Amino acid sequence: MSAREATALDGVRSRTVDPRAGYRAAQRRESMRAFLLAVPLLIFLAMTFIVPIGKLLIMSVKTDEVANAVPKTAALLARWPGPPALPSRQTFEALAADLQAAQDGGTLASAARRLNTYEPGFRSLLLKTVRQMPIAEGEQADEALLRIDRRWGEPETWRLLGRAAHRWTPDFLLTAMDHRVGVSGAIEPVEPSQAIYVGAFVRTFAISASVALICLVLGYPVAFLLATLPARQSNFLMIFVIVPFWTSLLVRTTAWYVLLQPNGVFNALLIRSGLTTAPMALMFNRTGVLIGMTHVLLPFMILANYAVMRGISPAYQRAAVSLGAHPALAFLRIYVPLTLPGIGTGAFLVFVLALGYYITPALLGGAGDEMISQLVALQMDRQLNWGLAGALSVYLVVFTLAVYVVFNRLVGIDRLRLG
C-alpha cells in the first residue's frame, strides 16, 4: 500500500463514527428529554410538598417569636449565669422597654403564646405586666416589675424566658419525647401526668400494625378468589373492590358512624338474632377505629396481593398434589411463599398509610385512641404551636424510616415485584 493510500485510509477511519459512542449519545438525549418532560412535575412537587414539609421540620428546632419580641433582653440573658441569682437591673430595664415595643409592634401575642408552652400562666404574666406599664416616673424597672407581679423575682421565670429567647432550640424535640431541660440544665422526663406523646406514638404504631394484620387476614382470601376465578367473574367482582376509591373518606367514615352507634344497624341485627341482649360498644373505642380503618385500607391489601397472585401459575400446586402432597400442604408450602412479595407490599403499604390517619380515629375513636396525627393537628390548629407539631412530624418520619429499614431487612421490600 502506497503512502497516499494509507493516508486516505486513515482519514476514512478518523471520519468513521464509533457505533457505541453514537448509542450512548442517543441515550443521553433520551434521558435529557425525559428529564425535561418531568421538570414541571418536579417543580410542582417541590413547591407543594417538599418545601412546606421542609419548613415544618425546620420549625421543630427553630423559633423566633420570643427573640424578635424581646431582642435586648435576649442578648442580656445570653450572658446571664443563671439561677440562683437574678439578672442585672439592666436586664429588667431592657425587658420593660422590649415589652412596650413588642406591644406596639404586635409581636407580644405570639411571644406570650410561645412562653406559655414552657410554663402555663406565662402568657397572663406578660399581658398583665404590659397592661400595668409604663413605669411610674422615678421608679426603677426591677422595682416596678416586682410590684406588678412577684414572679419576676423568681430566677426560674428568667431562666425560662432566656431558654425561649434562643432561636435554635431542642425543646420541641424533647417535648415530643416527654422530656425537658430541668433547672440544672440536665434533660429529665416530664411529670407522668404530662407525658402523652410517647404513649401516642406507641398507640399509633399498635393501631397501624393491627389494621395491617386484619387487612391481611381478610384481604388474602379475597385476592386469592379474584386471582383464581375466570376473567369475566374476576373483573365483575373487582368492581366491588375499586368502588370504595370513588367515595370520599369522610363519607365512608360517617357511614360507619351511623352503622356502629348503639341504635344502629349492627346492634339491631345482633339483638334481633339473639346474640346479645343489649347494644354493644362498637364506637368511641378501639373497636370502632379498627373497623373503620380496615374498611378504608382493605382494598390496598387486596390489590397488592392480587397483582402478585395473578402471575402465579396453578401448575405449581397441581404438580405438588400429583407428587403426593396434600392440597392444604401444597398451598402452604408452594403457593403462600410465592405470594410473599404481595403480602410484604400490602402489609407495608397499609401500615404506612394507617400511621397518618386522622378523620377515622377522630370520629370513631375515644379518648384513649388518639393517634399522633390528631396531636399534630391539635398543635397546629388550636395550640398554634407549630414547633411542637414539626417535632412530632420529625419523629413520625424518622420512626417510619426505621420501620422501613427493619422491614426491608426482614422481607426485602426493595426486591419485591408486583406481578
From TrEMBL:
Keyword flag RNA-binding: no
Record-linked InterPro entries: MetI-like, MetI-like_sf
Domain of life of the native organism: Bacteria
Coiled coil start-end: none
Bilayer-crossing regions: 34-54, 205-229, 236-259, 289-309, 343-364, 384-407
Any GO CC annotation of this UniProt entry: plasma membrane
Subcellular compartments: Cell membrane
Residues annotated as domain ABC transmembrane type-1: 201-407
Name of the protein this chain belongs to: ABC transporter permease
